[in-house]
Amino acid sequence: MSTIALPTPDGAIIARRREIVAELERLVSEGAVISDEEGRRTFETDALTAYRRLPLAVVLPASTEEVAKVLRYCHDRGIKVTARGAGTSLCGGALPAEDTIVVGVSKMTRVLEIDTEGRFARVEAGITNLAITGAVAEKGFFYAPDPSSQLACTLAGNLAMNSGGAHCLKYGVTTNNVLGLKMVLTSGEVIEIGGAHLDAEGYDLLGLVVGSEGQFGIVTEATVRILPAAEGARPMLLGFASSEAAGRCVSGIIASGIIPVAIEFMDRPAIAVCESFAKAGYPLDVEALLIVEVEGSEAEISTLLGRIKEIAAPFEPTTVIVSGSAAQSAKIWKGRKSAFGAIGRISDYYCMDGVIPLGRLPEVLTRISAICGRHGLKVANIFHAGDGNLHPLILYDANNQGEADRAEEAGAEILTLCVEVGGCLTGEHGVGIEKRDLMRVQFSDVDLGLQIRIKTVFDPKWLLNPAKVFPLDLTHGEAA
Amino acid sequence: MVRPATDWELRGMIASLAAEHRPVEVIGNGTKRAIGRPMQTAATLTTASLRGIPLYEPTELVMTARAGTPLATIEAELAARGQMLAFEPIDLGPAVGSQPGGQTIGAVFATNLSGSRRIAAGAARDHLIGIQGVNGRAELFKSGGRVMKNVTGYDLARGLAGSWGTLAVLTQVTFKVLPYPEIAATLVYPGLPDDIAAELMCAALGTPYEVSGTVHLTAALAQRLPDPSLAAAGQPLTLIRLENFAPSVAYRKDMLKQHLKVYGAPLELDYAETAALWSALRRLVVFPYGETLLWRISTAPRNGPKVVAAIRRHMRAEAMYDWSGGLVWLEAPASADAGASDIRRAVAVSGGHATLIRAAPEIRASVDVFQPSSAPLERITRGLKAAFDPEGLLNPGRMYAGV
Questions:
Q1: pLDDT of residue A479
Q2: For residues A424 and A409, what is the distance between their CA atoms, to the nearest angstrom?
Q3: Residue B267, Cβ neighbours under 10 Å: how many?
């Protein structure tokens, strides 16, 4: 897995490494610059581990002011910067280069303000996703976006990638849950967008910045929406003899007017692996399994799950299990949320993140299995069924270079298929380096040209998170 | 009036306007033409002939519509399948002298207008998942798509929401829809002063009962409600809406009443009364067209009453508070500067922004209609304008001078 081209680093910058490190050390507090090779090694990759580049230096600033000083310094000297949260990106979004400074926000984790009446929390961007909910849970509130890596991933990374999660069917993704940002521009200038009020003034800069993959600036603080927690929640399991029946059941639930808080789909290979890991009570004799979760009071939950059972009946589910306890619910979710880890224990895997219209699910699953079969690879599928976000996990042996390259080829074919049926290349992981060269499958050169002009508005010298998002040939001129 | 019927025709028209350096006013059905800074344009371009619904997939909660399709057509189509636009787009038309119900779906997204349910369901921009349009360079471009989750490339769809036609002419929009609730009810708390009402509204939204609308009207505005019994009360009214399946609404209403019992015993409105009331609020029925000024102020929810109290030190003002006090529709007597400096100073203290929705053209020409930005944000705004529309052809100056 190494077929993605990376630009040749700038030898002149690398030659000045010692001097640059010394200057950075003068700008920030003691210990914030990591320049030894062992220390830098930690930052050479993210969760797309097949690609590794040792950065020139790493800075872990403690404040917005320090981030601003570092960016101003890099801007004045034409040094590239890759921003980093926790390094959980699956698409190489935080991959550095040999001539690049990594600016990590992981030391900026403070909760600055919690206002349950105004339903917002103001936090530093290096806080982990789960710690936001942790900070407001005792007041009966939570922060809604819940990516699977929420224990580790930072809000900064969530903002960069516009992360989603299993529960975004009801609560939306990151961009729907952010009210304001403090961001350092490449020039070192600090800007504030929005605040504690709804709908920031002027052009929707929040909308543009969220999902810009660290290419517009470095966000150091955010005001996020917090929501009162539901009285209770309970999942049910529905097993089906075919993925088509499961897909039609999802359509049936939604057509009935019920929007469950989550509808997760797993195919047979995914069920087997997750069950052996989590012992969640998943049925092993079905082709497709749905986890459907609803929220409310006890009575409301029973009513809704009863209705869903009735809706499911015509699709002849072979398994219908309603969670009977909090412990069982936790196990059911543990199985799903640890799916990637569980599969990782039995094989190396390549996690894809396409999105498809729900109605095309059976056809897409058949074609994915044909694509992987042709490459001699196995695949397990996990699907946020309510919003069409498909995660095929292509299994391969990382020690076998040929197999690893075939996994990458199969992945590209699968994503091209997602676009062909009306979907898109990435639902929540981002483009990074991984899908950069597939952007032309989804966008025309006019579309990409417009995005490139917008990038140039925020970062005229193209110093921030280079070699991501756009095919390299489109950005050579700008990045030079 | 230029009326392109296809994207290609629109592209050609913008190309010729660009060649002649002729700026153009961009409209849908023109119901909001009286909002914004007055423009000097040589031509008017309407999307009204770009009509139709190429895609509606109720089981995927998604619809694609041509930008000039009337909102009324969209909502009728959705209602036939028990669905709706959950952000409840507000209709500014009647308040600025246009017929109600006239706006196009493209304009709804171009102005990011959301109604009371925004507090629970998100704004128009939160429901927009894909766009197609032509920018000032006569380029036909797209962003997003027809699926709910999409982080492929930058989020230009959201970037264009609320840009009032100054960056591009939308030709097609794809958006998320949601089921219409089975039933709805409203709790009406009479007689509360503004600050206590905001406290009540915030308390209601802090419960797990999924309140879907919170509005407080000063006594003078409550008297303008079409419902005679509400209008006759002669008191300020605080309105709390619940929507859901019937058993849920019954249960949550009881829980909420208990939770809010320190604010007194509410009147209750049934489904039909609730539907009529909130549909009237959606048309800003309490602000009939007239000489008075109308401002729209967004601030943190608890700060709404503070902002209004500060403004009232300088002028008479009536207020409708939506979004649990965070959105203030403020009516004030006409004045030379529309009260802009006093109003914006009051907003600056609490944080947020103010937009002048209704004023005579000569006033809108001389005061900032949209909230002025900080210097760096203004630079970014100008940069974005240049990225989309370098010649300044599209709605030039409608939001900000020179943009």
A1: 45
A2: 17
A3: 15
Q: What's the gap in Å between the CA of B117 and the closest CA on chain A?
A: 13
Question: For residue B37, which of B46, B25, B45, B47 has the smallest C-alpha distance?
Answer: B25
- A230 contacts on B by Cβ (under 8 Å): 208
pLDDT score, position A477: 54
Tokens of B197: 């009402």
Question: Which of A46-50, A91-95, A417-421, B121-125 bottoms out in mean pLDDT, i.e. has the lowest?
Answer: A46-50
Phi-psi region of B112 (alpha: psi -120 to 50; beta: other; left: phi over 0): left
Q: Is B124 helix (H, G, I), strand (E, B) or coil?
A: helix
Say if residues A94 and A83 touch (Cβ distance below 8 Å): yes
pLDDT score, position A476: 58
Residue A475 binned pLDDT confidence (cut-offs 50, 70, 90): confident
Instruction: Dig out the tokens for A397 from the structure.
Output: 């042996």
- Chain A partners of B145 at a C-beta cutoff of 8 Å? 355, 422-424, 442
Q: Does B390 touch chain A (CB under 8 A)?
A: no
Q: Helix H segments across A78-167?
A: 129-136, 155-161
* Per-residue model confidence (pLDDT) at position A480: 38
- First CA to last CA across chain B, in angstroms? 22
Which chain A residue's Cα is nearest to B131? A447
| Helix (H/G/I), strand (E/B), else coil: A378 | strand
Burial of A51 (0-12, 13-18, 19+ CB in 10 A): middle
- Which string of DSSP letters, residue by residue, matches A278-290? H-----SS-SEEE
Chain B environment of A169 (Cβ under 8 Å):
148
Residues of A with Cβ-Cβ distance to B327 under 8 angstroms: 198
Within 8 A of B142 by CB-CB distance, chain A residues are 443-444, 447
Average the pLDDT over each of A162-171, A452-461, B43-52 and give the range with the smallest value.
A162-171
Give Cα B358 to chain centroid, integer Å: 14
Closest to A48 in 3D by CA, of A1, A103, A3: A1
ipTM of this model? 0.97
Q: Does B388 touch chain A (CB under 8 A)?
A: yes
Residue B331 CA to residue B122 CA, distance in Å, equals: 25
CB B155 to CB A210 under 8 A?
Answer: yes
pLDDT for A3 equals 83
User: How far from the centroid of its chain's Cα atoms is residue A359's Cα?
Assistant: 24
- Per-residue pLDDT tens over the stretch A203-232: 999 999 999 999 999 999 999 999 999 999
A46-81 pLDDT tens trace: 999 889 999 999 999 999 999 999 999 999 999 999
pTM score, whole prediction: 0.97
Which whole-number Å values give the CA distances from B100 to A282, B109, B279, in the listed order?
Answer: 54, 17, 11
Hey, are the CB atoms on A115 and B150 less than 8 Å from each other? no
Cβ–Cβ of A299/B247 closer than 8 Å?
yes
Task: Spell out which residues of chain B touch residue A448, defining contact as CB-CB under 8 Å.
Answer: 153
Q: At B201, phi and psi to the nearest 5?
A: -65, -40
Question: Do residue B147 and residue A387 have CB atoms under 8 angstroms apart?
Answer: yes
DSSP H helices, A238-396, are 243-255, 268-278, 298-312, 326-337, 339-346, 361-374
For residue A1, is pLDDT > 90?
no
pLDDT digits (tens, 9 = 90+) for A445-472: 999 999 999 999 999 999 999 999 999 9
Q: Decide if A439 and B152 are in contact by the 8 Å CB cutoff.
A: yes
What mean pLDDT is reported for chain A? 95
Whether B76 and chain A come into contact, CB under 8 Å, resolves to no
Tell which B residues from 286 to 305 touch A, by Cβ distance under 8 Å: 298-302
- The answer to whether residue B151 neighbours chain A at the CB level (below 8 Å) is yes
Q: What percent of chain A has pLDDT over 70?
A: 99
Q: Give the single-character DSSP code of A425.
A: S
